[in-house]
Specification:
Layout (H helix, E strand, L loop, with lengths): L2 H10 L9 E8 L2 H17 L5 H16 L7 E9 L2 E8 L20 H8 L2 E6 L5 E8 L16
Antiparallel strand pairs: 1-2, 2-3, 3-5, 4-5
Helix pairs in contact: 2-3, 3-4
Length: 160
């Protein structure tokens, strides 16, 4: 575990009683391997925070794959950032192709790709694109979740 990862993992573990925002941020290579690693690291982080990760893993996979495919410049990385504020997870993927803004498109029925942003739109409560300092852009998505209620304790007494 490198120093940057270790610091993030320590900050992100457990609940934050003082009301601070839990976060995770990592630079990853703009490759298919980097996109896979983004999803794996995010799922591991969300699990360690005790948060649901099913919807988020699909959204992260799509945004990271888009950054590695369409937002790629040789030698440049993309950044995955996760924030948890209250009951909302904000996912941000920043790449260095601010000249290529994403837009959902209806793909050809026979196409094998092109449905990623449609999936993000279906799974996220909100999503969008923020232009950064040129040449960056950030594609973000927000997912609301409910905190799981503790299971009622069972004393073994059965109502008659």
């Amino acid at each position: 575990m490198n120093q940057q990862t270790q610091g993030i993992a320590e900050h992100g573990s457990g609940p934050e009683p003082d009301g601070s925002v839990r976060n995770f941020s990592m630079l990853l290579s703009s490759t298919p391997r980097g996109a896979r690693l983004a999803r794996l690291l995010a799922v591991d982080t969300l699990r360690s925070w005790g948060l649901p990760h099913e919807r988020a893993s699909h959204v992260i996979a799509e945004l990271a794959a888009n950054a590695a495919t369409h937002g790629r410049l040789p030698g440049r990385s993309f950044r995955l950032t996760l924030y948890v504020i209250g009951a909302t997870l904000r996912i941000e993927v920043t790449d260095t192709r601010g000249d290529r803004m994403p837009a959902p498109q209806a793909p050809d029925a026979a196409a094998e790709s092109g449905r990623g942003l449609m999936l993000v739109d279906a799974l996220a409560d909100r999503w969008g694109v923020t232009e950064g300092r040129f040449p960056r852009k950030t594609v973000w998505a927000e997912l609301s979740f409910t905190t799981p209620e503790p299971a009622p304790s069972c004393s073994g007494v059965v109502d008659a």
